[in-house]
Amino acid sequence: MRKFAVALCVVLAATACGGGGGTGDDTEPTADATETEPETAASEAEEPADEGEGDQEVLSLKVGVIPIIDTAPIYMARDNGIFESHGLEVELVEGQAGAAAVAAITSGELDFGFAAPVPEIQAQGQGLDLVVVANAYSQGEELSQAVVTTADNPAESIRDLGGMTIAGNALQAVNELVVRAAYQEAGGDPSELEFIALPYPDMQAALESGSIDAAFLIEPFLSRAIGSGNFKAVSENPQIELVGVGSSLSSYFTSQAYIDANPEAVDRFVAAMAEANEFADANPDEVRAAIPTFTAIAAEVAEGIAIGQYLPEVDDAVYEVFGRYMTEYGWIPAEPDLSTLLYRP
User: Fold this and answer.
1) With b meaning 16 or more CB within 10 Å and e meaning fewer, what string describes 68-90?
2) DSSP 63
3) CA 211, 10, 116, 44 torsion: positive or negative?
């Protein structure tokens, strides 16, 4: 288990969530991870202190999250009684993603973590037992992410970006992968593109200063930039071109060891998140109202941003397609084994 914590920290540190706007937490793993199976919050709840709906035992879970648009349904599930109806008492640990989440899961301090497909695939490529169990956020039809340049840049499409410097939120992460793959599909050589890592809030200033030529922007930064009239999108929702509408942007994961030790907790969490996502997807106005309660996005901004889809199931295709490109680019040694990477209840 210590091998799992240390190695996966390297994989997930910078890329906990690229599609939806999160960034990784590079906190080092805790020193007390051992080969002994950790006692988890769920296993501690085997002696119930309370009873849930249908007299089922209440299980306590701790989930690492980043407070961004992607995670709106999990906050709504906590506040609207969905977790309670599934016999779960869920504590959301903010900032616990990437390396910090992996270390906490391994030690039993956390039960589930939050990430994007690319680092999850990279983890399996490292020989680790990470398992994706529930969908968080999916690509919608509305413009919610784009490759953006200044309005006076001569580029008119992604094919025109050859030789340019492009900012993503992390290197060898989902922003870079999607742009390289979309550029390749448009007939370009992906090795012609140069990437640098910048936080999303810093990208607009970097474009204005000329230190970068293009940036991969997501909401709410995308609406702000396009709305100013000083920037244009040269590739809109590029993930749609690669995988299609409904492809997963982020998800929740745990370890196979945790699944083996706590199957009931995993199944309840998966069912609760499916219900929460279905509710959020059917009620976008409630999502917009909830966003300012757990993020730094102001209510007036939340009202105007594009929101993707909150689908109840993880999309297998994105892991297959991303895995193929990641293998081609040398990011992983072989294409992912979806039979072990994705949870099959």
Assistant:
1) bbbbbbbbbbbebebbbebbbbb
2) E
3) negative
For 131-171, the pLDDT digits (tens) are: 999 999 999 999 999 999 999 999 999 999 999 999 999 99
Residue 291's pLDDT is what? 96
| Whole-angstrom Cα Rg for the chain | 20
For residue 90 the two structure tokens come to 């869920």
Tell which residue, 237, 204, 240, 214, has the closest CA to residue 160. Answer: 214
C-beta separation of 20 from 72 below 8 A = no
Structure tokens, 87: 């016999």
Average pLDDT of the segment spanning 187-197: 97
Token pair, residue 287, equals: 């999502």
Check if the beta carbon of residue 314 is closer than 8 Å to that of residue 251: yes
For the chain, domains (ranges, CATH) are 2-140+246-341 (3.40.190.10), 145-236 (3.40.190.10)
Angle at the Cα of 310 from the Cα atoms of 307 and 313, rounded to 5 degrees: 155
Which residue has tokens 């993603």?
97
pLDDT 10s digits, 268-310: 999 999 999 999 999 999 999 999 999 999 999 999 999 999 9
